[in-house]
Write a structure and sequence with these properties.
Its cofactor is Mg(2+). The chain is α/β, with parallel strands linked by helices. It has a single domain, classed as Rossmann fold. It has 4 helices and 11 strands, in the order ααβαβββββββαβββ. Strands 3-2-1-6-9-10-11 form a 7-stranded mixed beta sheet, sandwiched between helices. A two-stranded antiparallel ribbon has the order 4-5. Strands 7-8 form a two-stranded antiparallel ribbon. α2 packs parallel to α3. The radius of gyration is 16 Å and the shape is globular. The mean pLDDT is 97. The structure holds adenosine-5'-triphosphate and magnesium ion (MG). The site of magnesium ion has 4 residues, from loops.
Length: 195
Amino acid sequence: MDRQQLRKHLLKQRQALTSQQRNHGAAQVLAHLSQLPELQRPRRLASYHSVRAELPTAAINTSLQQQGHQLALPVLHPVNTNHLLFLHVHAGTCWQNNSYGIPEPRLACTDIVPLAELTLLLVPLVGFDNNGNRMGMGGGFYDRTLAAWHAGQLPHLHPIGLAFDCQHVERLPNEAWDVPLPRVITPAKIWDFRS
Ligand SMILES: Nc1ncnc2c1ncn2[C@@H]1O[C@H](COP(=O)(O)OP(=O)(O)OP(=O)(O)O)[C@@H](O)[C@H]1O
Ligand SMILES: [Mg+2]
């Protein structure tokens, strides 16, 4: 299967889950997340607003905020095309839909959180393999976001993929720009690809 066929196949797998399986899976992922050593004291972290059949993040995001963490969410960069910016989410946050129809915080310069200030970056994905290679929706947004981390410029940042177990495959085709993830959390377990 080529990259596009594999993406389609993996999207189908995910779509086949019931909403009950989805919500139960998200609760299990939250339980794993809450046990991470990095989250044992209040931190700044970035998550994402789940759409379609993605692992639901609404309850995860709310719970992380209730645990005392500061939450940031991605917005499409207004100037730097195809890049993301991360904005702090707070009681006064205004929301709007971006060009993909995904709700995002309205851009306010004072809410911008540089990647260097984040401890954890929760990353959506369509598929992942035995080496942490990741396949997303095909926009390259997270590959671009993670490029500086991959180059060793963000040593305090910990990227973590969130997925259902059915998104795991033995091996994904990888391109030069693809950034592999050090960890992925699924309902079943925490996959650690470091070392
Ligand atoms: N660091 C980068 N700099 C420039 N272009 C990039 C970079 N990373 C990815 N791209 C471009 O983005 C496009 C899509 O990449 P890819 O298929 O890997 O997306 P993806 O990893 O599935 O998506 P996403 O990261 O948004 O979830 C490719 O055409 C690639 O050339
Ligand atoms: Mg990629």
